[in-house]
From TrEMBL:
GO terms for molecular function: L-methionine-(R)-S-oxide reductase activity. This is Putative GAF sensor protein. It comes from Colwellia psychrerythraea (Vibrio psychroerythus). It holds the Pfam family GAF. GO terms for cellular component: cytosol. It comes from the Bacteria. Residues 37-150 form the GAF domain. Gene3D superfamilies: 3.30.450.40. Belongs to the free Met sulfoxide reductase family.
Amino acid sequence: MSNKAEFYQELLGQTKALINNESDIIANMANISALLFERLTEVNWVGFYRLIDNELVLGPFQGKVACIRIPVGTGVCGTCSSTGEVQRISDVHQFDGHIACDASSNAELVVPVKVAGKVIAVLDIDSTAFDRFDLQDEQGVMLIVQALEQNIADMVNA
């Protein structure tokens, strides 16, 4: 990954090709998870948690067995869902209330997925490397999430 901006533009193009004209959100989340897990380095878990009845419920993912339910406002994913803001954590062990589904995870990037301004899910990416995610990673993953959000909006309005 010599040039992260180019790398994420390539991933964005691949994401759009995968989800273009597909109306099933679960299928799209599954393919996005698989793509990111395959292409990102030093990640040990990539997946979605869907917001259902004020609780995050495990959705499509790649990696080890994961926590099935996370209360909104708890842990990195729950904080992302309650604030609607990206959580880029260089050392999850320093995050108050961190939920350790996999004890080998040390850094985390969580991006909210929003429809009509409301969080409907979060994309969670874990790494065994401390300080794995930088601003370019955050911006690149946000572009991929925005493509998913646009896909969902297009299907709702179709």
